[in-house]
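Hey, I'm writing a tutorial for new members on how sequence and structure tokens pair up, and I'd like a real worked example in the thread rather than a made-up one. If someone can provide the structure for the chain below, I'll link this post from the tutorial.
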Amino acid sequence: MLTKCASSEEALADFAFGRIHYFDEHLLKKDDVYNVVMSPGPYDDTALSLLQYTLLALLLLFKRVTVDYLPGGKFYEAQDDASLQQATASAPKHN
């Protein structure tokens, strides 16, 4: 979804204005607020530009922070790595 919306202005507009959904319909609450947000407004061009830059930044961030956990990354098979478990044994389990 991020790649498609960040690279295509048409796909971005379709997503931003509710013409296509990347999530299940039952998750959307189409109430008065939804209708106001999805209706055309005077700042739509600015909002689409900001949304496109935000999605591009998120895409770059996700690629950078998840690469180690994907196949081929250093933490992909970390559960079987005893040296990694020993090195991180004293680290807190959560923030």
